[in-house]
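Key result, reporting period 2: structure in, sequence out.
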């Protein structure tokens, strides 16, 4: 049996290192957490929320799933959002996708992978309903597969950002005057940099200003 002892050794070293810098650190965290951020990201092992943003334990509440999808029937995601907004009172929710996302790639290649195909349905819908022009450019060889994949990763973030701020959780928070912004970001595996997709929404008025029926995507210039 493999005990994975090296992980416990790593952990002991890490805890000692933190304690050496800040002897009160763990005592403080054991009593309460008050993160300002809720990160909704992809499960991909290459996109860890804390490391990328340089945040310490206690500073970011995290929910991750395949392809960073905000699904209104997903009890897990909604429970995390509700707790983060209503109890922890985070000030920012960032929906963070990444280029080279395997979940998005599976939709692009129409690959059958099993259960996850159902999970990825929202990404397939973007491809079918919002990507006619890009698909045509790609079919004519004007747009590379890489470029199409990049645009679909970005569009998925935009769509999931919208799904996040359309939840009753976020809308009710705004309605009672709570300070809360929802952001859409994308991470590049190749250079480790985060990019803001410029779709931040911070109030009911801003959310309502996004025209009914018009794809949120169209407003981002993607
Ligand atoms: Co991914």
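The corresponding designed sequence is given below.
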């Amino acid at each position: 049996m493999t005990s994975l002892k090296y992980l416990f050794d790593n952990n002991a070293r890490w805890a000692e290192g933190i304690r050496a810098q800040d002897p009160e650190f763990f005592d403080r965290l054991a009593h309460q957490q008050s993160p300002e951020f809720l990160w909704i990201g992809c499960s991909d092992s290459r996109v860890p929320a804390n490391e990328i943003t340089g945040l310490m334990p206690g500073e970011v509440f995290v929910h991750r799933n395949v392809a960073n999808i905000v699904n209104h029937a997903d009890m897990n995601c909604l429970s995390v959002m509700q707790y983060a907004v209503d109890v922890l009172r985070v000030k920012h929710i960032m929906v963070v996708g990444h280029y080279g996302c395997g979940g998005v790639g599976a939709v692009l290649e129409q690959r059958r992978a099993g259960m996850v195909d159902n999970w990825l349905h929202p990404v397939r819908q973007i491809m079918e309903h919002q990507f006619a022009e890009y698909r045509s450019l790609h079919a004519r060889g004007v747009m590379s597969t890489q470029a199409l994949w990049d645009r679909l990763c970005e569009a998925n973030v935009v769509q999931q950002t919208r799904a996040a701020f359309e939840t009753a959780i976020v809308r009710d928070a705004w309605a009672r005057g709570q300070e809360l912004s929802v952001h859409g970001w994308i991470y590049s595996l190749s250079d480790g940099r985060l990019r803001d997709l410029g779709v931040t929404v911070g109030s009911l008025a801003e959310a309502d200003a996004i025209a009914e029926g018009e794809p949120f995507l169209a407003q981002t210039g993607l």
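The chain has eleven helices and five strands. Residues 35-219 form a domain with the Beta-carbonic Anhydrase; Chain A fold (CATH 3.40.1050.10). This case is discussed further under Risks and Mitigation.
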